Amino acid sequence: MSTIHLIGGEKGGVGKSLVARILAQYLIDHAQPFQAFDSDRSHGALLRFYPQYTLPVPLDEVGGLDRVIETAAAQRNKTVLVDLAAQSYTPLVRWIQDSRVLETAGELTLTLKYWHVMDSGRDSVELLSRLLDEFNGRLPLVLVLNQMRSDAFDLLDSSGQRARAEQLGARVVALNRLADATMQKIDAANTSFWAAVNHSSGAQGTLGLLERQRLTVWLNRAYEQVDLLGL
């Protein structure tokens, strides 16, 4: 049975593409076959860092996301990742509703999961509330608490939306902080996480010895969170 992972969060800079990159690297490191799609035509992270696994998928074309379902249906027991660009919530919901995506996935025995990547701000909480109102548990959710900028999610907890999501079956994972300078070096060198860990420092501006150790620890902690859910 194939599983489709939709990685979103609506607002720009919340960490959607970072989570998509982690999931892609996890699947590679665990020798699990997958197909990735990137809906960001101008700054697509999966297209940039994992081009051999990734195809573009347009959100602004009618039926643009159809390819995701068709790929999952045609290639059984394959994981499909979809990195959703910012401001993709409205076209995504329209596609799900107009194309009976949830019903069709059930008929085809496909599993869908929506990874709602959150920072600690009010916008992320309000977007989660919209998701819960819209789908009411029909679309399985994973809440990713991105601690790259802040680990204080008091607003989420006090809003009652986390408890509401968990009551509807949502799973919650946390993404620990990694130094901004380290992430900036990785991005500047246009390298995958594997390349950043395994290539010694040099002319290409890759990481130093202890930076690579910290990246390894951070990536392993992220993998532990993924293992709690299973892909």
Strand elements, count = 7
CATH top level assignment: Alpha Beta
C-alpha Rg, in Å? 17 Å
The fraction of residues assigned to DSSP E strands is: 15-25%
Question: Summed up, what is this model?
Answer:
The chain is of the alpha/beta class. It has helices spanning 16-29, 45-49, 66-74, 89-98, 101-107, 122-135, 154-159, 161-167, 180-188, 193-198, 209-229; strands at residues 3-8, 34-38, 54-56, 79-83, 111-118, 141-146, 171-175. A seven-stranded parallel β-sheet has the order 3-2-4-1-5-6-7, with helices on both faces.
Task: Please give a structural write-up.
It is a single chain. This protein is α/β, with parallel strands linked by helices and 231 residues long. The chain has one domain (3-179): Rossmann fold, CATH 3.40.50.300. The chain is 47% helix and 16% strand. The chain contains eleven helices and seven strands. It has helices at 16-29, 45-49, 66-74, 89-98, 101-107, 122-135, 154-159, 161-167, 180-188, 193-198, 209-229; strands at 3-8, 34-38, 54-56, 79-83, 111-118, 141-146, 171-175. Strands 3-2-4-1-5-6-7 form a seven-stranded parallel β-sheet, with helices on both faces.
